[in-house]
Amino acid sequence: MQETRRAVLDALADGPVSGPTLAERLDISRAAVWKHVEALRAAGFGVASGGEGYVLDGVPEYGGPAIEFGLGAPFAVEYHDSLPSTNARARELAAEGKGDVAVVADEQTGGRGRLDREWVSPPGSVLLSLVLRPDLPPAHVPLLTLSAAVATTRTAREAGVDARIKWPNDVLVVSGDGHDDGDDGRDNGDGGVNGDGDGEGTERKLAGILTEMEGEADRAAWVVVGIGVNVEPEGLPAGATGLREHASDLDRRVFVQRLLETFDQLRAEPDAVLGAWREHAHTLGQQVRVETPRGTIVGEATDIAFPGTLVVETDDGPVEVHAGDCEHLRPA
Ligand code: BT5
Q: Could you give the dihedral angle defined by the CA atoms of residues 298, 290, 293 and 112, in that order, rounded to the nearest 10 degrees?
């Protein structure tokens, strides 16, 4: 949002404030104040005008100005009702030299996962891509993916959803394993479909992260971190779940704000990211099978190491896995 408009909005939120007072305070004309007020109304903000002046009495449910309003992180928000892919749009902005922009869409028509897989993105989802210009060598960029996974998990947990991280970048809700999955505590009764079905719980994917970057050997030019979080349970592929299945009063605007704020805090404290990841990890302590570009690795996932490698204890000793698709076989 343009700076003056944001200042008008902040003043209205602290209002009531009269047009002339606002004009003087912001050093703009009274006509300009009126224009900003009308533009805010057009963007869905409720602005009441009474004897004492203007006062904010409603915030739009979702959208760019709604997310930017009261956001405690330095991201400009570019909002679209529909995009092929927020990552594709974020890459365009990155190529133009932009930074600290969050591209947000209500739905995607060509959402992407890793390795060009599809990401199903029905209307009402949380779909966002962060354009970042971190002062990091490319080899350290996985730390930003981990930060996004931790931020998504923490935000979901704050919203009452028992989310956990599956290496490297999936956020899951596990039910039926004796953990409270954040709803009314009922077992969903479908037993364990992952692994050998010995009751370890059903994993359903709540969110996925896709990081892309461009850079030289010593420094990333830009990084795009794309985060997709399911909200409505309808329209999702098998094995997926949405936030509203576990938290019926979820506010999508507040969720995105908290997600951006938490990510912003984590990127400022890279030394804290691995510890935070461990705290929320579901993968550690599991027997896993990881399909990597160099073959399959089977063993117990014992730790995560800088900048995001999974340590797997195999029959031939510990192996550090940098990238791959991980399947949880059963708790070790
Ligand atoms: C991911 O890939 O999990 C990364 C997904 C990133 C999506 C975000 S949305 C905003 C931004 N813009 C984009 O275009 N992408 C990013 P991967 O680990 O490869 O998982 C993909 C697999 O998850 C698919 O092959 C399906 O099996 C499954 N899947 C697809 N859509 C899903 C959904 N909505 N919920 C859960 N699982 C899904």
A: 170
Asked, as a colleague might, if the bond just before 168 is cis with ω within 30 of 0, I would say yes
Hey, which of 92, 117, 119, 130 would you mutate to test ligand 1's pocket, going by the most ligand atoms within 8 Å of its Cβ?
119
- Please state the pTM of the whole predicted model: 0.92
Question: What residues are in contact with ligand 1 under a 6 Å CB criterion?
Answer: 85-87, 108, 111-115, 117-120, 127, 129, 170, 205, 208-210, 226-228, 230, 236-237, 240
Q: Which CATH class name applies to 287-328?
A: mainly beta
Angle, to 10 degrees, between the axis of helix 142-158 and the axis of helix 270-280? 50
Domain limits, the chain? 3-58, 64-279, 287-328
Instruction: Estimate to the nearest angstrom the gap between the alpha carbon of 223 and the chain centroid.
Output: 15
Fold for 64-279, please state it: BirA Bifunctional Protein; domain 2 (3.30.930)
Pick the CATH number of 3-58 from 1.10.10.10, 2.140.10.10, 3.40.50.620, 3.40.109.10: 1.10.10.10
Is the pLDDT score of 41 beyond 60?
Answer: yes
Task: Give the pLDDT of residue 314.
Answer: 97
Q: How far does residue 230's CA lie from ligand 1's centre (Å)?
A: 10
Q: Output the CA torsion 253→141→312→161 (10° steps).
A: -10
Confidence of residue 13 (pLDDT cuts 50, 70, 90): very high
Say if residue 332's pLDDT is above 90.
Answer: no
CB 132 within 8 A of CB 223: yes
